[in-house]
Amino acid sequence: MLGVDLCQELRKEHELIGVDVIASPALRHCEEAFRPTKPFDPSTKAQGRSRAKPRDDKSSGLRPEQGRRTKQSHKCDVTNKREILQVVKNMRPDIVIHTAAMTDVDGCEVDQKKAYKINAEGARNVALACKAVDAALIYLSTDFVFDGKKKNPYKETDKTDPLSVYADSKLKGEAAAKRILKKYFILRTGWLYGKHGKNFVDTILKKAKTEKALKVVDDQTGSPTYTKDIAKAIHVLISVIASPEVILRHCEGTKCQKQSQKIEYGVYHISNSGSVSWFDYAKEILKLAGSQTKVLPISSKELDRPAKRPRMSVLDNSKFIKFPGHKMRNWQEALKEYMTPSLRGHEVPEAISQAKRG
Ligand SMILES: NC(=O)c1ccc[n+]([C@@H]2O[C@H](COP(=O)([O-])OP(=O)(O)OC[C@H]3O[C@@H](n4cnc5c(N)ncnc54)[C@H](OP(=O)(O)O)[C@@H]3O)[C@@H](O)[C@H]2O)c1
Question: Are 162 and 144 in contact (CB under 8 A)?
Fold first, then answer.
């Protein structure tokens, strides 16, 4: 889901980005995303945005273009250490964004071996490959690394205590990145939805077509996050890595304040701001869709799923606001855009248009 949105977001300024997204199903879109739409012109300045210097300029965070392969995407399995290493060595990326994972949280409880192989060992393989070519790693992790006992949003410094195999395997992936690399960003997010793949929004809308009432848990709180917004945040981060000396911050209207920034690697929390329970989230989705279907609250215990989830997994985004200087918008605003065709600039999934019709 996130991989494809990332490809589409990054292609807008891909000439400054040495990113290769490694995930199999996203490949078709990635091939297209990395096909140059215009030749790289280092003298071009984007409006209101910092740009990478020419790649042979040592002050830019990127390497010279010379010697790079032109083919920008490869199909590979993150559990295959040799293959990952070979692909990364061939591509010599500056940054690897590692989004591939086994994300079926309940499935991870059932096939624990597979979960650890993909999420923990896979992340370690990617980190080792990054080390081999001195690339920075951006690793997507999860709000589920916390136990949910906290009352207020989780900070990066809060103690982790995963409740499920999925969360533990992702945390082991984090640990591998920290152990192997100096240049890493661990981006923890949660409750993702986006245009590609299965998500809660589309599931609720689909069910609302055939059921008069939906039962949804009301004892878990988090921050629904639009993959397009994560993609934008990663875009900002990459712009800073590519041009570490100066970034433009605090833009108001046409006025931007210039500030020098040092790259601050480490763990970051990024999710749409604000928080909601799954129950109120479902109500908001149906309200925006104009659906008459009712939502009934149930407890997690009643739902009885194999994996335990944290009761509260809201993330505090303030570190990411300081560096690289990006603020995530409110979850309701993002959801409204996702569900409104004229706002989001692409077709609405069948589930949404049908819910609106019915
Ligand atoms: N979804 C969420 O709510 C959420 C929340 C917090 C963090 N995250 C993290 O964000 C990242 C992206 O999540 P997402 O929802 O976009 O996940 P997704 O839609 O499930 O995509 C994950 C991708 O990884 C691929 N993959 C699985 N095993 C692989 C392997 N061995 N080698 C290469 N690719 C493999 C999957 O391919 P197949 O489909 O072919 O298996 C899939 O395309 C993940 O790291 C996830 O842990 C997600």
Answer: yes
Q: What is the DSSP string of 314-352?
A: -B--HHHHHTT---PPBHHHHHHHHH-HHHHTSPPPHHH
Does this model's pTM top 0.90? no
Is the CB of residue 271 below 6 angstroms from any atom belonging to ligand 1?
A: no
Residue nearest to atom 11 of ligand 1 (CA): 99
Residues acting as catalytic residues: 166
Place 261 in a pLDDT band, splitting at 50, 70 and 90: low
Domains of the chain: 2-198+225-273+314-329 (3.40.50.720)
Assess whether the C-beta atom of 121 lies below 6 angstroms from ligand 1. Answer: no
Q: Which two tokens stand for residue 235?
A: 């875009």
CA distance 223 to 278: 9
pLDDT at 271 over 70: yes
Look at residue 241 in the predicted model and tell me its pLDDT: 79
Rounded distance from Cα 44 to ligand 1 centre (Å): 35
**Helix, strand, coil fractions of the chain, as percent rounded to 5:** 40, 15, 40
